[in-house]
Structures are given as structure tokens and as C-alpha cells.
């Protein structure tokens, strides 16, 4: 079971990880081109777009993948094909509707985001940026359903490759467009940012082209399957879509959890900062947190996203078959591996916040301090993603919705008073409290309905915490030593500092994991393979 979980995670996460890494490193030249005010303007458009794209797809591609897989297992390939064709039409319709709604709502959203005249951006600028990014809504839902179709046939390659190509095309257009506007045409930052957000549409065309190529290449095989159709299941499209919608709701809720919290920040931060006389600092702090720091912090969360995708079918199978032993093993390993991988990344970001921020965005002590404060929230994002997936697996998805809404309500209630007290840090504290409450509620539901006890996970978590504490101390003193003669203010030397300290931390953590046998318990197959390669008996 363990190796299957890890193997599935690696397959599903490869495209996502490459895409995330590309999405992290483009911010270095982009930030240099448009500056902090341009980055803030970009994020004003992207946060509502992220929510709308989740609503437009409504988790249906993932649910369609699950449904197609189910009917393919029954050799009812005609049902799968009929579902796919009707799904494409629905995705085109919902995508176009989402585009129209966001395009028309842009002025209203802009007025909520920009409440004061003394901010760098104005309502017209934000309206233009939101409208530029809204065009991607026409294509992305249609494209994501095709990815779901391939995944339903057990083929992850088309999704992974199209995801990477989409990101490459988007980033290339984004950077080239911004460079031409600002450096060659001497145009405005607003127009450069408009092109940067419109790049989502251009990237989607690139991803869609890859999927069409895979469709042409694999159509003979898919048609051969269709010829083997048993034709024994008669089910209407309305029945199938009812099943799909029920499956889709938890996916959309989990998918928009972080953007919803960010949207609360987007709608309240500038207004609150203006009300306490700090409008001049508002957009810079917003960009430092919700774009710059978030780009770095979200990377460790990708592993949790991959786990959540892999978990649902495994846990569902164990739960439905009342195989409580396998279910406990799956939950034990999931929580442990999640903490084992996410916690050291979080600790590393906290200790190396200054050189990390300096490398990606140029030296800025305020930005580094915000990154340091925000880094622990990565662990909460990861835990929410995985616990929500577990609730889906044990058929308690309604609690996912309720618990997230409770956490979001707490965020909404606390955000303004905490911003008034702590500025950008107030957004971090409100997010941490909101997600923390949602996670605790998720854990209680898992304990109740899966009859699961956290004793082993608690003991192993203490061990992992101790290892991270030891690693953290070594990395901290290594960083302080190296920083005496390697300047942190320069981007290149900041990268050298990061690589040196990360290597030392990785060696210490790996050594402790080997000596304690923890690595062998969590990754038995991988560690045995490593021993064979090293010639260790």
C-alpha cells in the first residue's frame, strides 16, 4: 500500500511540480520589470480569476475522470465517450458564462479593491487587468475536462505535458510582452501587467494544442476500446451528471480554499490600511505577502496536493470494504510522510527567509520578515488539503464544506482588526487561525467516522519535530557563519547561501532519519532500492 501511495503521488505530482517551479522562478525577471506596484496590480486580477476558474470547472473534470474510470472498469466505453462529449459542451458554456460575469463585474471588484485615491493603482487600472485575465476562462475549463478524460483512462502523460507546456507558453508571453512594452516601446506598467495577465489565455491555447495532439495520436486506441463496449449499462446523462456534481462539490471547495482567503485580503487590506493612514505602504505590503511570499511558501504545499489526489480512491476502497486495518495504515503513513516532507521545507524557508527573498525579489528586509512569518502557514495549507481529501475518501465531504466555511468566517471576522493592529502580519495571523480551526474540525471528524486514533502519528510527529529542531539549529548557525563573508544582499550570493545551507540541512535531516530508521518506515521500497544501488546489504 505504502509504495503504491508514494508511486501514485510521484506520477501525479511531476507535472504540477515542474509547473510550480516554473511559476516560482519567472517572478525574478517579472518583479524586476514591473516592480512592487506592478506585482500588486497583477495579483489584484489573478485572485478573482483563480476563484472564477475553480467555479467554472466546478471540480467537474476531476469528477468526470473518476466517473470515466468507473465505467471503463465495467468495459462500458460508450457511456464514457458520451459523458466526455456532453461534458465538453457544458465546459464551453460554463467557461464562456464565467468569462462574461467576471468581465462585467470587473469595475465593481476594482472599486472594492481600490478604496482610496492615494494608492498607486486606480480603479481603471484594476478593471483593465481583471478583464484581461478573464479571457482565459473561455478555454481553461474545456481544456481541463480533456485532461480529466485522459486521466480517467489511466493516462497521466497528456495532463502533465500539457500543464508544463501551458506554463512555459504563459511565462514566455508574459515576460516577452512586459519586456517589449516597458523596455522597447516605453509603455506603461498597467499595459505590461494587462499583457501579463492575458498570458493565461495564450498559455491555455498552448496547453490545449498539446491535448489535441495527444487526442489525434491516441484516437485509434480509444476507438478500439469503444469497439469492445459491452453495452449493458443504460444510464441517462442527467443521472451521470447528478453523480458527478455530488462528487465535484468537495473538489471545488478544496480547490478555492486558499484563493478565498486571499480574496478576503484583497477586498479588505487596502481599505483597512487607508483607514489607519497607511495607504502609502498598503500595496507594497500586499504584494510582499500575497504574491511574493506566497509564491515561495506554496511550493511545499504541492506535495500535499498530490497526496490528496492519490488518497481519495485508496481510502474510499478501504472505507467501503470496511478494511479498518488498511485504512489506519494509509492514514498513519499519509500524516507522517506529509509532516516528514513539509515541515523541514517550512523550517528551511523560515531560517533562510532573508536570502530567499533577496534571491527572488532583491534585498528587502520587510519582505524577508513577512516571508518568515508566513512560512509556517504552508504546513496548515498542506494539512487542510490532505484532511479534506481524507473526508472525501470516507464519504464525509459535507464536513469539508462546513469546516472550511467556519474557518473562512473566522478569517473574515478577524482580518480587519488584526490588520489594524499588525498590518500585513494581521492577514497572516487571521489566515493561520482560520485554517487552524478548519483543520482541527477535520481531524475531529476523521477520528469520529474513521475510528482513527492519532497516538502513533503523535509519537512520530514528536520525533520529526526533534529532527527538525536539530536540523534547524545546524542550518541557523551555518547561515550566520556563511553570512559573515557571503553577502545576502546580492541575488547570486544569496543563492549560494541558500544552496550551502540547504545542503547542510538536508544531510543532517537525512542522517537522523537513517539512524533512527524513520526513513525505512516511511519509504520502505525506496530505501531498499537505494541500499541496493549503493551496494549495502
Automatic annotation (TrEMBL):
The lineage of its organism: Bacteria, Bacillati, Bacillota, Bacilli, Bacillales. This is Polysaccharide biosynthesis protein. It is a multi-pass membrane protein. It is found in: Cell membrane. It holds the Pfam family Polysacc_synt. It comes from the Bacteria. InterPro entries: PG_synth_SpoVB (IPR024923), Poly_Biosynth_Transport (IPR050833), Polysacc_synth (IPR002797). Keywords: Cell membrane, Membrane, Transmembrane, Transmembrane helix. The chain crosses the membrane at residues 21-40, 46-65, 86-109, 129-150, 171-192, 198-216, 244-264, 296-316, 337-360, 372-394, 401-419, 425-450, 462-486, 492-512.
Amino acid at each position: 500500500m505504502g509504495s503504491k501511495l508514494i508511486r501514485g503521488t510521484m506520477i501525479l505530482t511531476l507535472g504540477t511540480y515542474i509547473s510550480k517551479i516554473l511559476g516560482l522562478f519567472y517572478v525574478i525577471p517579472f518583479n524586476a520589470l514591473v516592480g512592487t506596484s506592478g506585482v500588486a496590480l497583477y495579483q489584484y486580477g489573478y485572485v478573482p480569476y483563480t476563484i472564477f476558474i475553480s467555479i467554472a470547472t466546478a471540480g467537474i473534470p476531476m469528477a468526470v475522470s473518476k466517473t470515466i474510470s468507473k465505467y471503463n472498469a465495467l468495459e462500458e466505453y460508450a457511456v464514457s465517450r458520451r459523458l466526455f462529449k456532453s461534458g465538453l459542451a457544458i465546459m464551453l458554456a460554463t467557461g464562456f458564462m464565467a468569462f462574461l460575469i467576471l468581465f462585467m463585474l470587473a469595475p465593481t471588484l476594482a472599486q472594492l479593491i481600490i478604496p482610496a485615491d492615494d494608492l498607486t493603482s486606480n480603479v481603471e487600472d484594476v478593471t483593465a487587468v481583471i478583464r484581461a485575465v478573464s479571457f482565459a476562462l473561455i478555454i481553461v475549463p474545456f481544456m481541463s475536462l480533456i485532461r480529466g478524460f485522459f486521466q480517467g483512462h489511466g493516462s497521466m502523460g497528456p495532463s502533465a505535458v500539457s500543464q508544463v507546456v501551458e506554463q512555459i507558453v504563459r511565462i514566455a508571453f508574459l515576460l516577452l510582452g512586459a519586456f517589449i512594452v516597458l523596455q522597447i516601446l516605453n509603455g506603461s506598467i498597467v499595459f505590461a501587467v494587462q499583457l501579463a495577465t492575458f498570458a493565461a489565455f495564450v498559455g491555455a491555447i498552448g496547453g490545449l494544442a498539446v491535448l489535441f495532439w495527444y487526442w489525434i495520436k491516441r484516437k485509434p486506441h480509444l476507438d478500439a476500446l469503444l469497439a469492445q463496449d459491452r453495452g449493458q449499462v443504460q444510464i441517462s446523462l442527467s443521472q451521470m451528471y447528478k453523480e458527478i456534481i455530488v462528487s465535484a462539490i468537495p473538489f471545488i471547495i478544496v480547490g478555492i480554499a486558499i484563493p478565498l482567503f486571499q480574496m478576503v485580503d484583497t477586498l479588505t487590506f487596502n481599505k483597512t490600511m487607508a483607514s489607519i493612514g497607511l495607504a502609502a505602504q498598503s500595496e507594497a505590503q500586499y504584494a510582499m505577502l500575497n504574491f511574493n511570499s506566497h509564491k515561495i511558501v506554496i511550493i511545499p504545499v504541492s506535495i500535499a496536493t498530490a497526496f490528496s489526489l492519490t488518497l481519495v480512491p485508496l481510502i474510499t476502497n478501504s472505507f467501503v470494504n470496511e478494511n479498518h486495518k488498511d485504512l489506519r495504515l494509509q492514514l498513519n503513513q499519509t500524516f507522517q510522510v506529509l509532516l516528514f516532507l513539509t515541515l523541514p521545507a517550512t523550517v528551511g524557508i523560515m531560517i533562510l527567509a532573508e536570502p530567499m527573498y533577496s534571491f527572488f525579489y532583491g534585498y528587502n528586509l520587510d519582505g524577508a520578515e513577512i516571508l518568515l512569518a508566513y512560512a509556517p502557514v504552508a504546513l496548515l495549507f498542506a494539512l487542510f488539503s490532505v484532511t479534506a481529501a481524507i473526508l472525501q475518501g470516507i464519504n464525509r465531504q459535507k464536513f469539508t464544506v462546513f469546516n472550511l466555511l467556519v474557518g473562512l468566517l473566522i478569517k473574515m471576522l478577524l482580518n480587519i482588526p488584526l490588520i489594524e493592529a499588525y498590518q500585513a502580519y494581521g492577514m497572516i495571523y487571521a489566515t493561520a487561525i482560520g485554517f487552524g480551526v478548519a483543520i482541527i474540525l477535520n481531524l475531529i471528524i476523521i477520528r469520529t467516522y474513521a475510528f482513527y486514533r492519532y497516538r502513533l502519528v503523535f509519537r512520530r510527529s514528536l520525533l520529526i519535530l526533534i529532527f527538525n529542531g536539530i536540523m534547524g539549529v545546524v542550518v541557523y548557525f551555518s547561515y550566520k557563519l556563511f553570512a559573515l563573508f557571503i553577502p545576502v544582499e546580492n541575488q547570486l550570493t544569496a543563492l549560494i547561501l541558500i544552496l550551502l545551507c540547504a545542503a547542510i540541512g538536508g544531510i543532517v535531516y537525512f542522517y537522523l532519519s537513517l539512524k533512527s530508521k524513520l526513513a525505512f518506515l516511511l519509504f520502505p521500497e525506496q530505501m531498499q532500492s537505494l541500499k541496493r544501488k549503493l551496494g549495502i546489504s
